[in-house]
Amino acid sequence: MTVPPPPVPRRGRDRKADVLKPAPGRDRFTRTDAPRVAVAGGGIAGLAAATLLAERGARVTLHEAGDSLGGRLSGHPTRLADGSPVTMSRGFHAFFRQYYNLRGLLRRTDPGLTRLTPLPDYPLRHSGGLTDSFARVPRTPPFSALGFVALSPTFGWRDLAGLDARAALPLLDVRVPDVYERFDGISATRFLEGVRFPEAAHHLAFEVFSRSFFADPRELSAAELLLMFHIYFLGSAEGLLFDVPDEPFPHALWDPLGDYLGRLGADVRTASAVHAVRPRDDGGVDLDTDTGAERHDAVVLALDPGALRALVAASPGLGTTAWRDDVAALRTAPPFLVSRLWLDRPVRADRAGFLGTSGYDGLDNISVLERYEGEAARWAAAKGGSVVELHAYAVDPAADRDKTERTLLDRLHQVYPETREARVVDARHLWHADCPLLPVGSYRRRPPVRTPHPRVTLAGDAIRCDLPVALMERAATTGFLAANALLEAWDVHGQVLWTVPRAGRSPALRALAALGREPRPRNG
Q1: 333-358: per-residue pLDDT in tens?
Q2: Residues 463-489: what's their mean pLDDT?
């Protein structure tokens, strides 16, 4: 079967988005010089790396330790108490329009991104009663910021006037790695306090940005917070609204991409882990896997922090002492909970598909899946009910899990009172602790894509990347960068990448932000 060429990367609607071109080279390997490349990890980063390498003609073997592809966006079939076959996944994820490289990966099997559907709003509710919306906020800065202030019941003009303008200036010109050099040494909470961000509006920054990292904002690096403001709000014209898959993750995203890799000749193996990596004197690598020893010319390690730490610890010949220490220093965020409930009656028709929540005893958001997912909509229509998902991020590792699950249900009843009378037809509760933690002062020690071995590269959202990307987009971008690094050494053309602007959007804003870099005059 002939595989069509991958689509040309797109930058979205933002005319100021930046392009990152790979090193020049030939179009692809020939049949006689195609290297054997292993990819450890079948999440977004590993899939991006494997896809690009296979498209360029490399002989790719993808190892995924789990039973399915997708990493933290994987899913598995299950059967409910009423006999219904459904798919349980690891929770809601927002596909923002500025995720250019992730969307480019998905276009391999869905050129028009028809399997993504837009959500009309992303409301945020605080337990104090205030609710913010992004539905009518303009996309393009600075009108996005001004429009939000004009429309927000939480953050008003008085609050804007009360900010420490000089302390807030860095938000106008965020650059990587400069933002880390200046702000990685303080916490997200401390930065907002220094700006005099109003207490009533703290949940906006924390729920939209900080909690997305599954971290307590008192521990999260302020540099990550500033980067998030830049990517989603002040630096990009794509806006804060997003798309979501219209079917469960495996059906909409990963099964088609796995089939695509198969058509490219890649060997995709699930339930197959890589246990050790042994660099060879000729530059290649040997792998210990579930099926035995394998010989490859190169490997991409696209693993979560815990799995990467374990693999490097089991590979004594891999890397330098300093590099191994940096990998060992990678931290994992506290556990998170995804509770999905199948209810015997519908929630109110005006409930949003996704609601961010703050001040509700650890409940971070509520999703009503039938608003956007076909499988949930079909179940809800057939049973006259609703499929509701609850998230709790950065849960205390010592917390009682049963109690946490009950608390989330109680808070659902508080936020959506009509659910108090609903019977839970069935429920699934997933606990995981495999997200990277990006705490204060961690940036300099994060290992980059390139390693001491030219034929070993790293990818994932825990990996250092000197581009304005985060979360799923950081995973996709580092996956492509890891493949690009290998392809460059073989004189093969890599992937063109796009990012949001890599600096403030206008000369005037950049000049204004420069005032914040100047040392303040000392009193006296």
Answers
A1: 999 999 999 999 999 999 999 999 98
A2: 97
Residue 166 shares a structural domain with residue 208: yes
Q: Are 199 and 144 in contact (CB under 8 A)?
A: no
Q: For the chain, how are helix, strand and coil distributed in percent, rounded to 5?
A: 35, 20, 45
What is the DSSP code string of 272-316?
--EEEEEE-TTS-EEEEETTEEEEESEEEE---HHHHHHHHHT-T
Beta strand 116-118 with 242-245 is: antiparallel
Task: Establish if 1 belongs to a structural domain.
Answer: no
Inter-residue contact 99 to 468 (CB < 8 Å): no
Q: Which residues pair with 354 in a beta bridge?
A: 367
Least confident span in 67-71, 382-386, 504-508: 504-508
Q: Which domain holds residue 385?
A: 73-120+242-246+333-436
Stronger pLDDT, 165 or 5, i.e. the higher one: 165
Rounded to two decimals, the pTM is 0.94
Question: Rounded CA gap, 113 and 109, in Å?
Answer: 9
Burial 480-509 (b: 16+ CB within 10 A, else e): bbbbbbbbbebebbbbbbbbbbbbbbeeeb
Distance CA 453, CA 286 (A): 13
Residue 182: both structure tokens together: 């200046």
Specify the CATH number for the domain of residue 86. 3.90.660.10
Query: The domain spanning residue 290 has which CATH number?
Result: 3.50.50.60
Q: Report yes or no: 334 and 435 within 8 Å, Cβ to Cβ.
A: no
CA distance 39 to 46: 6
Residue for token pair 């010949």: 317
Whether the pLDDT of residue 256 is over 50: the answer is: yes
Residues 84 and 64: their CA atoms lie apart, in Å, by: 28
